[in-house]
Amino acid sequence: MRDGTPLTGDFGQRLRHLRTRAGLSQEALSHAAGVSVRALADMERGRTRGPQRRTVQVLAEALGLDDAEAADLEKSAAVGRPRPRTADGPATPGTLALPRDIKDFTARGPALAGLLELARDTGPDRPGVSVVAGQPGLGKTAFAVHAAHRLAPHFPDGQFALDLHGMDPEPTTPRDALARLLGALGIADAAIPAGTDDRAGLWRSMTGDRRMLLLLDNAVDESQVGPLLPGAGPALTIVTSRHSLAGLESVHRTDLALLRREEAVELLTRIIGPERVRAEAQAARDLADLCGHLPLAVRIAGQRLLSRPHERLSKLVARLAAEGRRLDGLQAGSLRVRAAFALSYRQLPTDARTFLRRAALAAGADFSPETGALLAGLSYDDAVACAEELTDAGLLQSDAGAERYRFHDLLRLYAAEQVAIEDGPEIRDAALDRTTRWMLRRATAAALHFDVEHEGSPPGGAYDGDPDPDGAPAGREEARAWLEAERAQWLAALRRAHDTGRHQQVLDAAQAMHWFSDLNQHWEQWVEVFQRSADSARLLGSRRDEAIHLNYLAWSYNMCVHDPHNALTSADAALAAARDCGDGLQEGWALGYGAGALHRQGLVPQAQARLRAGADCLASQKSAQARLAELTILNSLGTLLRQAGQPVEALETHRRSERICRAGIPGRTDELIALYHAVARQQIGNDLAALERWSEAEPPLRQALAAFETAQMPAWAGPARLDLGHVLSAMGHPEARATLLAARDDLTGLRSPRQAEAAAALSALDGATAAR
Fold it and tell me: Cβ–Cβ contacts within 10 Å for residue 529, how many?
């Protein structure tokens, strides 16, 4: 005996004596050994008679036992362990043992903490089940194995791991899985019942009082997993699957996300060593990005570099940067990203496979079921069903707030490969053409909700309405939402229509977008839209359409990307086209847009001359369109006069604009005239401010701001708010700071050049306030 501790005997008595001798409470020993208090209590009460060797080792270390005492404690534990036997004798030790842990396992701290909390909460009537699901390559199995090793001390009655082969053509049946699990518990083959239900019943009875951990890896569905779950007792089951297993009730779900960039670099560092990563830090970050922060891809890249100790990281980065070679580069030995994706892809039904690969043709970061349906040639309802099935299978990610879906970058590359392999160029082009026609018709119909001149149809052309009137956006709000959500898709459709010679469709869409573009001046893609439409007009041989769309292009260069040089080039080309075809309206517009470009280049006299010429040209025209253009030119001329130090003449010019608005324009709505009037009121306010008539300037600026906000025109409301903020600041008005702050935020969001002006005005106001 040592200190009264018997050399043999009950493990629980020995453990309690050693803990008391060490002066430790159960809580203290639990903390030191990493074994739960409940597990310790079960051991000391004799409920758990034979904990696993690893559990005994951590307890011996926490108790400070010497080698001989630790060996004695292990012997007493071994006595209480079950001795598995088959019909022919002892079973092979280690049956269904946990796979080897990965030493370089990285990140996943919150997910591990969640499982640890679940393990602590298990009890006789609370068996725990956690489902680890997600897309291929997230490292679900690696995480589950690592977690199982970390949790092992909490489950002294054993840890078992079983691969259910969910990705194989013939996954493990519940009946066969139960036979293996019962055998691991020591049930002889002859004693295992024949039927699945009887085997499940025996399994539940055998596990009912065991504090054990069960890892079911690679499950295919709920029907495979359900019979294997312990019915009661303090067991914990971790299930991994590429499917969500949404039908399993009362389970904890462990959601593994992609690694953050720094975590991906950390994993790479643990695989190849810190020296190589430090030597090429930026290349390591680029490599993580090219791997899409997918753990499997990062591991493959790391293993490849590990096997080539003299290869530079930048060399692999250069290879992976070529999308067509990226999946080829992400393989190391038997580890292949493409193979991981292929396992899931091959299991999909035909429609789901078609939907997945064709969805890779969609433009933009995400896509709608509508787009997927068009590309796959499916009905909308079937497309939604496919998208949901693919989300459950971890092959698509769904948006949290909208019915939209996205790929992981590498999976999109794989899906695009399948288009080339299974569909070929003819089917691919047919899918893209079908989608292009539909998208441009819908985009044109949606944009026409904002067209105040043509009441639902563009002038001329061959536009034949929305392709699905019953499902079309109703009203401006729905139209705006659709155009914003599908921006990448309809722009891609416009490109394809242009490149494949459908120039009239390009013109119709761009013409319909004209008024909508005014509401979204901060969208830089308007340059491409109108560049393509101007080119389509030229290819169709219409000088008038070419003048119209070159004017739109000049506007987009001026207002959207702030490029006055290209704006002037486009305006001059529009002016030449307008004069060739004798279109005075487009001539006036071209003079106005050219003036704006000259002004932005600091050529004020030349800009004033063009504006005066444009106003004279338009004044001689009788159409309602000419009156609207004249208002725009007059407002621009007045603004230029004020900025040139001629505020009195500027005020007179803007008053002239206001008189036209008040007189009304036949054939134009009050709503439209109100917007032009708001612009005139804004400029009148600025003219009065330039004359330091502050109190007179405030009302027209407030009126203009209110009108722009009512019309939901942020690109116009932001500058108007800044103008009002300047006036309020000069007046010492209590709203000045809040107004300038809001203006700065608005203009920053719009990427407006005036954001610096707003920041400076805010800073000056704060400085003046502090100096008082």
Answer: 25
